[in-house]
Amino acid sequence: MSLSLLLTVFTAIPSLAGDVHVVDGTGAGDFPTVQQALNSALDGDVILVRPGSYPSFVVDDLDICIVADGGTVTTGTVRARDLALGKTLVLDGIDAQGVPSSSPSISRGAWFINCAGSIRAQHSSFQAGDSNSDSAEDGWDGARLENCLDVSFTDCLLAGSHDSGAYGDNTGVHYGGGNGLYAIQSFVSVFASEVLAGDGHPATIWDAGVGGHGALLESGSQLHAHSSTVKGGDGGGTSFDMGWGGDGGHGVFSRTLSAANLLGCNLIAGQGGWGSGCSFCGGGEDGAPAIGASITILPGDPRELCLLGPIGPLREGAAVALSIEGYVGSRASMIYSYGTDRRTLTLHRLLLLSAPFIRLLPSPAPRPIPLALPTRNFLGAWSANTLPVTFQAGTLTPGIEGERIFAQPIHMPTTGSWNLGAPVVLFVVDSSL
User: Fold this and answer.
1) Which of 25, 68, 103, 423 could potentially form a cystine with 73 if both were Cys, beta carbons 3.0 to 4.6 Å apart?
2) What is the pTM of this model?
3) Where are the beta strands (DSSP E) in 131-258?
């Protein structure tokens, strides 16, 4: 499969493409920080971030791709707000780490607010900083979404913080661990990721803190999770002779009209903390793997859903080797698109691409698929547990420094129904950058 055919199509059909800004903390790039690059960027631009550590940044209503280029990129909290419908924010290879603080703007791993557009995070981590202040605060969320219509995490780590502050030791009130993911009036999909809650604070006086929830859904939120681990935090233990251990957090906690569809996920309950053992005190209760309204555990094995490969952009003319997990004898196709969107075909099938779709090669199918799907591009049949796929970048249109393409695999087994896989974003940038 050659991506050079794809880039030929780009010249015929308009796509969102623009300038590339290079961020390098050593001063060798266009900007020393991500925020300075964002302040100068326009819709459609790509920000390449060279290896290093960078401060927190905020994306304000900007259609932009922020991509690690050539190594580990560590930042502070990533915030996005007011992303308009039709715009897309892509985060690729970003290791966002909140700092220990009493301020959510710098302590959460990610915080997305009022985004009607699409957010795509891949090969990234969002880890909250421990709440170690003397304030009365639970641990922070790894990723918090408020009023966001379309957020997707692929091959990501979302980790809530542990409560380790001195407030409880001074007052006897010990607070809980942070949630791995906290969604409020939001739609979120998670593929091949880890969503881990923080643990509750142990106690030396009175009761210990409770564990956070792996994924907490509020106010009509929806979670669509495939091939992921979602774990509740453990409750803290207490050494006080009249104290209770903290309760363990739930793996997935769906409440207030929310819903979760879970396929092939490892759901782990947090363990209750140990208690003092006195006659009227004891250990905390264990959490549940999944609890609440409208939780659907979908049948099937989603092992074929993940497109595996290196992080970062392709230069013009370069090739990248990827692979798709699957089963011997089954066939794989790929859908390509210029844009991303969210469309639920069935509970099993979440399409995260938008028209127009791109045909690279003829797409033979082993049998008809009983839905009007977008154009499919045949990749091959599995002869082992992974199917190798090579993408070859062509030449960009003169005057364009970078372009992006959205892709999503289709698995067609020898028996049973077809399935859609985890979305991925591929980038091609000017060879001189």
Assistant:
1) 68
2) 0.89
3) 143-154, 157-159, 181-184, 187-191, 194-196, 215-218, 222-226, 229-231, 252-254
Q: Are 226 and 408 in contact, with CB atoms under 8 Å apart?
A: no
Distances (CA, A) of 405 to 3, 371, 409, 424: 10, 24, 13, 9
User: Is the CB of residue 409 less than 8 Å from the CB of residue 305?
Assistant: yes
109 contacts 145 by C-beta, under 8 angstroms: no
Other Cβ atoms less than 10 A from the Cβ of 14: the count is: 9
Tokens of 160: 């809530």
CB 175 within 8 Å of CB 138: yes
User: CA 45, CA 32: separation in Å to the nearest integer?
Assistant: 17
Tokens of 174: 């010990």
Tokens of 41: 């960027």
d(CA 309, CA 173): 46
Residue 189 burial class via C-beta count within 10 angstroms: exposed 0-12, middle 13-18, buried 19 and up: buried
SS3 280: coil
DSSP, res 402: E
Three-state DSSP class for residue 168 = helix
The pair of structure tokens assigned to 266 is 């490892």
Report the C-alpha gap between 341 and 332 in whole angstroms. 22
Structure-block tokens of residue 390: 């090579």
Dihedral angle, C-alpha 309, 347, 145, 123, nearest 10 °? 0
pLDDT, tens digit (0-9, with 9 covering 90-100), for 201-217: 887 677 788 899 999 99
Least confident interval from 79-88, 166-175, 223-232, 384-393: 166-175
- Cis amide prior to 356 (ω within 30 degrees): yes
Rg of the chain taking only CA atoms, in angstroms: 23
Residues 6+ apart with CB under 8 A from 166: 132, 133, 134
Site of tokens 């881990």: 196
> Which domains are assigned to the chain?
14-298 (2.160.20), 303-429 (2.20.130.20)
